[in-house]
Amino acid sequence: MVTSISTITLFNVIAIVWVLIISVIFSLPPNELVLWTMLGLGVVLTLYWQLSAKRSFVGPSKTDEAALRKLEAAFAPGAAS
User: Fold this and answer.
1) Which helix (H) or strand (E) holds 4?
2) Are residues 34 and 28 in contact, defined by beta-carbon separation less than 8 angstroms?
3) DSSP string, 13-66
4) pLDDT at 1
5) Model confidence over 13-40: pLDDT tens digits?
6) Among 53, 56, 33, 57, which residue's Cα sits nearest to residue 44?
7) What's the CA gap between 67 and 39, in Å, rounded?
8) Among 14, 38, 60, 77, which is disulfide-ready with 64 (CB 3.0 to 4.6 Å)?
9) Mean pLDDT of all residues in 54-69
10) Who contacts 52 (Cβ-Cβ below 8 Å, separation ≥6)?
């Protein structure tokens, strides 16, 4: 599988944004406002998944799965080097 530099850059940006969001969430004090904020975030993410992401996500292909199994077998404990 050939991955372009722009795809890798996109994933890097997404990863950095995710870490920033999680850092903010875990630094919030435990109080009632945080409860409602997290519940609201959960509702928004669920709606996003149901209305958009679920339709466009295709998952790994059979060839990707076969290549993964081959790599796992090559690096499994007891495999010949």
Assistant:
1) none
2) yes
3) HHHHHHHHHHHHHHHS-SSHHHHHHHHHHHHHHHHHIIIIIHHH-----HHHHH
4) 53
5) 999 999 998 988 788 777 778 778 888 9
6) 53
7) 39
8) 60
9) 81
10) none
